[in-house]
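re the bet — no i am not wrong, look at it urself. input seq straight from the record:
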Amino acid sequence: MYQRVIVVVEDEDLIRSLIADSLENVGFRVASAANAADARRVIRNVDPDAVVLDIDLGKGPNGFDIAEVLRREQKGVGILFLTSLPDPRFAGHESTSINNGEAYINKSLISESKILLDALETVLRNTNTEKFRHDLLTDRPLGNLSKTQISVLTLLSEGKTNQQIADIRKRSLGATEGTIARTLETLGITSDLDVNGRVAAVRKYFSILKPSNK
């Protein structure tokens, strides 16, 4: 019987091993990679039916970079993002789009392997993956922020001043302060642009995206 081949790209050894074991136990043939360079080599050697991609792979290319290559060079390969990022816009990547037929599963929502297996089967069949698009959940953390607000919040988390944020984004200081104020308001932080408001915003950011930020 033909065994479908899955490549698992995950930089954490334990998680990679657990995913591979769960897939092998139901009949898949699995090859693993710990980073983008390994992934390119493994994908070229095994010609997979689908790839399970973590997004944050440490230094160098991330999961979105690998997905872009797959879409361009190996059309037909199923793509399933498996990540702790509740929203791909926090990945710090220019292209964070998830295509039709691809899935985006948050690791925190996986209590058993069935969710992963069901999502993978849907990707392999290239059918409607809407129920496996956790990046579209209305109640996802910080999901009500706009792309601009996410950009500003990320810069705040890096300790940038208002003027530095304005310079980086090539906006006026006044416009930047207005955007920061709206971002705090969207986060439910009533403080103005003082230190306490910024600290509260950054604390909320890190509580969701750290320490794993995967």
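see?? Residues 147-209 form a domain with the Arc Repressor Mutant, subunit A fold (CATH 1.10.10). told u. also The longest helix spans residues 195-209. so pay up
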